[in-house]
RNA-directed DNA polymerase (Gracilibacillus halophilus YIM-C55.5), 134 residues
Amino acid sequence: MTYNMDKRSRSTHSKRLVRTIVQKYGYGEFDRFVSRHRPHLIHYAEASIITIFNHELTDIMSNYQHMLNKSYLQKIFYLAQRSLIKTIAHKRRISAKKVTKRIKGNPERKIIVTQLDQNGIEKEYALLTIRDFY
């Protein structure tokens, strides 16, 4: 038995699924397309915060990549990126615009944070983008 949905109901189902994903991970509000900081993460190191976001984005891609088209996934990634920037801004107690200038000031325009490891060597932590999966 095949289940055919028309274009409108498929779109409605996809929007509902994206809304659920965005709410589940606390990235913001999909309907208004507004990101939100995550205050429960500010007590972690910035590298750990990026690692948490990367784990969540990898989980989203592994679970939902086959159900959603690329445009919906890009919207989720955008809200996650803005949520990360706002979380780091909240942690540093500066504006999100200043954080964006400081951590996106690289040629690839990726969100990268450097942190010293136990041996005193700087290590870079970058937020995954949708291009990392395609």
User: Anything to note?
Assistant: The chain has a mean pLDDT of 89. The CA atoms of residues 39 and 87 lie 7 Å apart. The longest strand covers residues 112-116.
